Amino acid sequence: MGLTVGAMVPTTEAAMALGPSLMTVFIVFGGSYINADNTPVIFQWIPRVSLIKWAFQGLCINEFKDLQFEHQHSFDLQNGEQALERIFLGGRRIRETVIAESRILLLFYLTTYLLLKKNRPKYQTLLPPPPPLGTSERWSKLEDIEWEGAKKSPTTKPPF
C-alpha cells in the first residue's frame, strides 16, 4: 500500500500525509472496531481490501484452530473453534486469507506499476554540443556524419 501511495502523489510530504490516513481507515474497517453488518453500503468494499483484516483473520485461525482450553465452568469456552465462532470466524480456513491477501497485494503492485508508468518523467532528447567557434576544418568533418533523424542527402546539415 505504501508503494501505491508513493506512486499516486507528487511529493514525499503528500505521501506522508495520505499514507497514515489510509492506514487508519483500513484499521477502523478491519473488523475489530466496526462490525461488517453495521458498515454503510458505500463503505462495504473497504474490509474486503484491508490487509489488516485478512492478516488478523489468518492469525486468529492459526492460533485457535484445534486448540483445547482448560475450563472450570460449563459456560467457559472449551476449544478454539468456539472462540473462532464467537468472533465470527468459524468455518474459515487460512487458505482463504492467504488467497485474499495475495489478491490485494497483486492489486496494489499492479496499481503501483501503472501509476509509475503513467507518471514517469519525460526527458528531452540530448543532442551533441555545437562545435567551438573558429574550427572550420572540424566542421567539414562533422558535415560528413549521418545524423539520427536526418534525411540522407548531401544538403542535410547537423541539427545544431
TrEMBL record:
One Pfam match: ABC2_membrane
Give the chief site where it resides: membrane
Q: Under the GO molecular function aspect, what terms does this record hold?
A: ABC-type transporter activity
Annotated protein name in UniProt: ABC-2 type transporter transmembrane domain-containing protein
Where does the UniProt annotation locate this protein?
Membrane
Going by the UniProt record, its keywords in alphabetical order are: Membrane, Transmembrane, Transmembrane helix
State the organism of origin: Trapa incisa
Topology in the lipid bilayer: Multi-pass membrane protein
Q: List, for all copies, the residue spans of the domain called ABC-2 type transporter transmembrane.
A: 1-64
Membrane-spanning residues = 12-34
Per the record, its GO cellular-component terms are: membrane
Matching entries from InterPro entries are given as: ABC2_TM
